[in-house]
Amino acid sequence: QYSSVTDNSIFASFGSNYWVIFAFLLCTMLVKVFASVATNSGGGCGGLFAPSLFVGGLCGFVFAYALNFFPFIEVYLPQKNFVLMGMAGVMAGVMHAPLTGTFLIAELTGGYNLLLPLMLVAICSYGTIRIFMPHSIYSLRLAQQGKLMTHSKDQAVLTVMSIDNVIETDFDKVYPDMTLGELVQVVGRAKRNLFPVVERETDKLLGVVSLDDIRNIMFRPELYDRYKVDRIMVSPPARIQSDMHMDHIMHLFDETKAWNLPVVTPEGQYLGYVSKSKIFNTYREVLNVLSPDE
Predict the structure, then answer these.
(1) Could you say which DSSP state residue 167 is in?
(2) Please, what CATH class does the domain formed by 153-290 belong to?
(3) Which residues contact 125 (CB under 8 A, 6 or more apart)?
(4) Rounded distance, CA 227 to CA 206, Å?
(5) Could you tell me where the beta strands, DSSP code E, fall in the chain?
(6) Three-state DSSP class for 26?
(7) pLDDT value at position 196?
(8) How far apart are CA 216 and CA 235, in angstroms?
(9) pLDDT digits (tens, 9 = 90+) for 227-261
(10) How far is CA 198 from the centre of its chain?
(11) Domain range summary for the chain, segments of one domain joined by +
(12) What's the whole-model pTM score?
């Protein structure tokens, strides 16, 4: 009864006008989409199931209502059937659930006479949305944050792991104004062969000194006062930011072929190091927890 949709509104006197009804329903559909997105994105609990059915029903009706207006369309499109197909299509696209959209709407009609068209609409909707959005509205935020669990064991383990599990902080820091002699003293009591170079005031990472890089000069006392750390330090092959996901970190290791990479904050402040050996050990521990029988 689309002629009564404008009742009790400021458009009530135009209820018999085709273009007013068409524009009214089209605007209602668009505003409903905006309202649902704004509510859910803003942290509210507006739901997705009922709005999907509502928008889908309006979409299917407006489509059939518009085509039936033109005289060159010789076949009349049953608007009530297109309401149901619109509901199935939008639900299948929003939730990435073509079977749910098909059989739920079929159950609402009390029969399966429209099963084939419902299935075609749901499959087309699902196939189209997969091109633009590989994840459903329920899993999209988790996927963007890198926290979506998948059936891939490697991806699942990397999702469970975090940088806090693999970061190592027992590296001795040195400063750019230190002399080679002072650096040698730090090397003498250090347990690692990498030395991050940081600013004294801010702890901002400037570079790194490797034991291999100074091995040929560290036993020459006459050079202790001539060389300073800022002259012999080098830039690390890459820097890991503290908010990176483990999947991205593994890509950095693969690209740089490095065994150790420094960890910094988004502002560049030094936090520690991550090594491949630590990642492999932690990976094995998490894998044993997820698959205890293997």
Answers:
(1) E
(2) alpha beta
(3) 88, 89, 90, 92, 93, 98, 101
(4) 17
(5) 167-168, 194-198, 205-210, 240-241, 260-264, 270-275
(6) helix
(7) 93
(8) 20
(9) 888 888 999 999 998 888 777 787 888 888 888 89
(10) 32
(11) 2-144, 153-290
(12) 0.53
